[in-house]
Amino acid sequence: MKKIILLPAILFVAFINRSCANFGNDTINAVKTIGADESNLVLPQGFNAVAFAKGLGEARHITVTPNGLVYVKLSKLKDGKGTYVFNDNNSDGISDATKGFGNFTGTGIAVKNGYLYASSDFDVYRYKLNEKFEVIDPEKPEKIVTGLLNRHQHEAKAIALDNDGNIYVNIGAYSNSCQERDRTKGSMGKNPCPILDSAGGIWKFKANQLNQTYGDGVRYATGLRNVVGLDWNNETNSLFVMQHGRDQLHDLFPDLYTTKQSAELPAECMYELHQGSDCGWPYIYYDWQQKKKMLNPEYGGDGVKTSGENAQEPVAAFPGHMGPNGLLFYTGNMFPEKYKHGAFIAFHGSWNRSPEPQKGYFIAFVPFKDGKPSGDWEVFADNFAGGEAFMQPGKAKHRPCGLAQGPDGSLYVSDDAGGTIYKITYTGGK
Amino acid sequence: MKKTISVLVVSTFCYIVFAQTVSKDQMQRGKTVFETYCLTCHQEDGTGVPKLNPPLIKTSYVTGDKRKIITWVLSGTTEKIEIDGEYYSNNMPPQNYLKDQEIADVLTYIRNSFGNKSSAISATDVKNVRATMK
Question: Do B89 and A352 touch (CB under 8 A)?
């Protein structure tokens, strides 16, 4: 139905794009562009997407400066470089200048107060910017935070900055549910979970102090299994994060959970954090269908027992395993009014749902009013994976990972499977 | 010419050996073990999950030495180990709770599915490796 209504608009857009000879193939829309190697995104009416840049490999998080430079952090070096900057000099919506720098890989990237911040899986660095938001000395970043735990799971150090000179860093738990032996059937949960003293939470550091490590920062929030998508909300002046919920309920406890429950129930949760927040991992998971905090089976749970009376309630909850890797509060003026202050979430896409079909591989939207969700979430941009019923993550052509807002209010999306940077704009009437 | 003949002879011989050692029954049993204990991570078609869980398609572990793959599956790993030039960030739990026969079946299944073609593994092979690990 949506598609039928869209068709005339799309044909018109496709026609226009044809006339721009150079970039016709890069245009992505709800109808297949002949010869395009992209999967075709499906967007709400009036929105349009182009491939702003391509061929980046594993493009993780992304940030856009007030004058439109696009910085991207890679988790695999491309031509020996781990960070790339793009510019669209002729303002046609597609990058025409690029430069790589830095020899480390990672996920986090952000621009604040004259600096570019970027993280490896161990450390956080910053680069001084000139008045045109260009990195002054690409070869000599300053190390802000160092020596963070990276133990072979949930290693991405996603970052966000507030307006008071602090930087927040995710340190993911190197575990699924803090079992004696990770992901091993019959192994019970450690109590108390020793991981939480140095991981499984968000740590807060000074944004302008060099060589800080655990002792110099504070554990800002705990009980978070792993956070990749996070954003500072300027309306509420608080940090919002998306937690990756637990895996493998059925594999580990087949007598208690069906494969279907295992696929659906353990929610991907959005939390609003404050100093001292505890979101309950590993003792609980959040069942989004019952809207309850459930005792994890590793700690004696049975799918019925609730727990975590003191654990924080999520502000929003989504079906299991979709992998929320990017979070962005929209403050632009380009998109229709309903998007203002709302949250876009890049769902990287599941692997932990088989034998059910995989899920995610899209960007969701949650409307907000007065700093709280004001309605249900919906799919905003779909079909990154490029297939119908989708079973194997390895076959996804694109996986959305990072989100950023351009100075004109457009939405940028990075993709760490196909290495494309998408730029989504609104061209419909208001 | 001589070469062609010898290739033919060798491949026929291999085919016979192969046909004899990989039984349909064992493949069927191995598939069941795979679906119960390995599928979530390695996926139904053995393609794995990029960056997280490695594929089981023509990797040096899958097609290589029996002892190496048996040891791997019995002990699992929480280390970051390079697999054919890539690194994967998940942990593989030890599968030592499975019986010798179950491990033999699942490994034979893997070694002869997803485009792989390697020799079968027997319960005795598994038993021998397990004995050296204790």
Answer: no
Residue of B nearest to A418 (CA): B50
Give me the CATH number covering residue B79. 1.10.760.10
User: Which superfamily does A2-426 belong to?
Assistant: TolB, C-terminal domain (2.120.10.30)
A355 contact B CB<8A: yes
Amino acid at A376: D
**Spatial separation of the C-alpha atoms in residues A427 and A430, rounded to whole Å:** 9
Q: Global pTM?
A: 0.90
The pair of three-digit structure tokens given for residue B103, joined into one six-digit string:
């491990």
Question: Does residue B37 belong to any structural domain of this protein?
Answer: yes
Q: What is the pLDDT along chain A (430 residues), one digit of tens a residue?
A: 344 434 434 433 333 332 222 322 333 333 333 334 455 799 999 999 999 999 999 999 999 999 999 999 999 999 999 999 999 999 999 999 999 999 999 999 999 999 999 999 999 999 999 999 999 999 999 999 999 999 989 999 999 999 999 999 999 999 999 999 999 999 999 999 999 999 999 999 999 999 999 999 999 999 999 999 999 999 999 999 999 999 999 999 999 999 999 999 999 999 999 999 999 999 999 999 999 999 999 999 999 999 999 999 999 999 999 999 999 999 999 999 999 999 999 999 999 998 899 999 999 999 999 999 999 999 999 999 986 666 789 889 999 999 999 999 999 999 999 999 999 999 987 6
In 3D space, the residue among A428, A403, A413 whose CA is nearest the CA of residue A334 turns out to be A428
Does the predicted interface ipTM exceed a cut of 0.90?
A: no
Residue B8 counted as domain residue: no
Residue type, A152: H
Q: C-alpha angle with apex A259: A253 to A261, nearest 5 degrees?
A: 85
Is residue B109, in this structure, part of any structural domain at all? yes
Expressed as residue numbers, the domain containing B106 is: 22-132
Based on the structure, what is the number of domains in chain B? 1
**Contact (CB<8Å) A391/B53:** no
A142 touches chain B (CB under 8 A): no
How far apart are the CA of A241 and the nearest CA of chain B, in angstroms?
22
- A243: amino acid identity, one letter: Q
Rounded (10°) angle between helices B100-111 and B66-75 = 120
8 A C-beta contact, residue A400 and residue A361: yes
Q: Mutate one of A77, A152, A253 to test the B interface: name it (highest B CB count within 10 A).
A: A152
Among A336, A328, A334, CA closest to A410: A334
